[in-house]
Amino acid sequence: MSFGNGAFDSDEGDVMSEINMTPLVDVMLVLLIIFIITVPVINHAVKLDLPKASSQPADIKPKKVSLSINADGVISWDGAALAEAELEPRLESIAGSEPQPEIHLQVDKATPYDHVARLLAAASRHGLSKVAFVTEPDKK
């Protein structure tokens, strides 16, 4: 080795093209040791004897009310004819029940829409929002 400027030494002036792996391996070993020490500390949990509880889901199915309107505008409640004056009190009585019942509405094809609209408006006034229209499938 000379203490000169290195102009005459051809081996020392070359650029090193390989990666020096020694510092990388040292860093990886230190990280491995740190993780080996810290993982048991992180997973340390307090053992608790918690009470056991069993609960069954409450499948309370709502009551179903079948209303039908024929071509003349006559309303039937679960198959029995109902006067128009009796409709409001009955809707009010079922509106207060919990869970709220479902109204299945069957309407004749020849029924004027005015009868259906009045029934839907009465149900809405009493807070009944679950109304389903029942239809018959096409026979082809």
Protein traits:
3 helices, elongated, 140 residues, alpha/beta, Nucleotidyltransferase, domain 5
* Helical coverage, percent range: 25-40%
- In the CATH scheme, what's the topology name of the domain at 64-134? Nucleotidyltransferase, domain 5
Low-confidence stretches: none
Q: Provide the structure class.
A: alpha/beta
Give the mean pLDDT.
82
C-alpha termini separation: 103 Å
Gyration radius, rounded: 41 Å
CATH class of the domain at 64-134: Alpha Beta
DSSP summary: helix tally: 3
> How large a portion of the residues is in β-strands, by DSSP E?
15-25%
What pattern of helices and strands is seen along the backbone?
HEEEHEHE
> Main sheet, how many strands, which sense, barrel?
5 strands, mixed
**CATH architectural designation of the domain at 64-134:** 2-Layer Sandwich
Count of DSSP E strands? 5
Strand order in space, largest sheet: 3-2-1-4-5
Principal-axis shape equals elongated
Short description:
The chain is of the alpha/beta class and 140 residues long. The chain contains three helices and five strands. The chain has a domain at 64-134: Nucleotidyltransferase, domain 5.
Task: Explain how this protein is built.
A hairpin with a 2-residue loop joins strand 2 (75-77) and strand 3. The mean pLDDT is 82. This protein has helices spanning 22-42, 84-95, 113-125; strands at 64-69, 75-77, 80-82, 102-107, 131-134. The chain contains three helices and five strands; from the N terminus they run αβββαβαβ. The radius of gyration is 41 Å and the shape is elongated. A five-stranded mixed sheet has the order 3-2-1-4-5. It has a domain at 64-134: 2-Layer Sandwich (Nucleotidyltransferase, domain 5). The protein has 140 residues and is of the alpha/beta class.
